[in-house]
Write a structure and sequence with these properties.
By secondary structure, this protein is of the alpha/beta class. Helices cover 45% and strands 18% of the residues. The protein is built from 16 helices and 16 strands. The strands form 5 sheets. A 6-stranded mixed beta sheet has the order 5-6-16-11-12-15, with helices on both faces. Strands 9-8-7-10 form a 4-stranded parallel beta sheet, with helices on both faces. It has a two-stranded antiparallel sheet with strand order 1-2.
Amino acid sequence: MNYNGLDFNTYFRNHPDINGYFGKYGGCYIPDELKKAMDEITEAYLTICKSSKFIGELRRIRKEFQGRPTPVSHLERLSNSIGNVQLYVKREDLNHTGAHKLNHCMGEALLAKYMGKKKIIAETGAGQHGVALATAAAYFGLECDIYMGAVDIKKQAPNVARMKILGANVVEVTDGLQTLKEAVDAAFAAYSKEYKECIYCIGSALGPHPFPLMVRDFQSVVGIEAKEQFREMTGELPDAVVACVGGGSNAMGMFAAFLNEPVDIYGVEPLGRGPKLGDHAASLTFGTEGIMHGFNSIMLKDENGEPAPVYSVASGLDYPSSGPEHAYLRDLGRIKYDVVDDEETIDAFFKLSRMEGIIPAIESSHAVAYAMKLAKEMNRGSILINLSGRGDKDMDYIIEKYGIR
C-alpha cells in the first residue's frame, strides 16, 4: 500500500532510520555520556531482536505468564444502542497486570538480563507501567525503582500498593505539577547517575532512540493478534481502528499491524477541560515541533518555548508530547488524530461498564468515547478499539470525583 508516496510494504524496514528518526522526528538528544549508554542498548537490542532464543523466550513468557493472546470481544449491546455500526474491543485489560504495558516491560527486562544489568528504573503516570515493570523485575530477579508524581500517587493508590507489594521502590516526585512529566525528569536524572548498572525502561513509544523502536516492536503483538482474531470472527478487516494516545505505546502496538491495510486509523488525545493551554494534553492536535526528554516530536509549549503544563482526567495521558512515530504518521496523514473531553470519556466509562460488564481504564475510555461518536457518523461497518487497560486503578478516583451514575 502506498500513502502520500510512502510504500508501507517496506515501512518497518526503513522506519526509524539508523539514527532513530521517523522523518524529522525522533533522534537521540541526550548528553554524550548517556549517548554511549543508549548506543549500548541499541546494539544489544538490534542483536537479540533477531535471535530465535530471545524471540522464543519472549513468546513463552507471553503465553505462559502474561496470558496472551488476549481476546477480541464484540460489544453487541453498546453497538445496538448507537446504531448499525458494530464495535469490537481488543482486551488488553485481560493481559496480566491489567494493561498493555507488560508487553514491552517483559521485553525490556529480558533485554536488561541479556545485558547483565542488575536494576531497572522507570517513570509512571497512571501506575500501569510501574506495576508492569515491577512485575517484570520480580519475574527476572532485578531491582526496580519507579518514579511517580505525588499527584498521581494520590490518584492511583491501588497501583502504588501493587508496585510496593511486588518489591519495587516507589520514589515520590514533588517537583512542578507532580505528574508524569516531572516523573520522567526525575527518572532521567537518576539514570544519568546509575546507567552502568541499570537501564531506564521507558514507559511509552517515546524518548531517545532506540526506545520508540523497541516499544513499538514489543507492543506490535497487540495489533498482530487483533487483526488475525478480527478476521477469524468476521471474515474481514474492521473499517476503522481506534486507540487513545498519550505517549503512544498502546496505539502504536495496535496501529502497526494496520498501516498497510485499507483501514481508517484514529488516535484519540485528551481534550480534558477544553482547548485552553493547561486544560488538556492534546499535543498532536495543538502542539508544535520541539525537543524534550531526548527526542524531537510535537509538543505543547508555554510562552517561553518550554513544555507547557498539561491536564487530563487520565493520569497516563497527561504528558506534553507524543511519540515521534505518531508525529510522523500525523504529518503523512495516514492516521487521523482527534480529541474527546473529560465528560465524553467518563460517559463512555460508565456506558461500557453498565452495558457490557467491562470496567475500562480512564485512558482506554477516551478511545471508547471516540468510537461511539464515530459510530454515529458511520452508516454501517465496524470499529475495532484497543481497550488498553482495565479500570480497577481508577474506581476510587471516579467515585470520589463523579459519583455513581
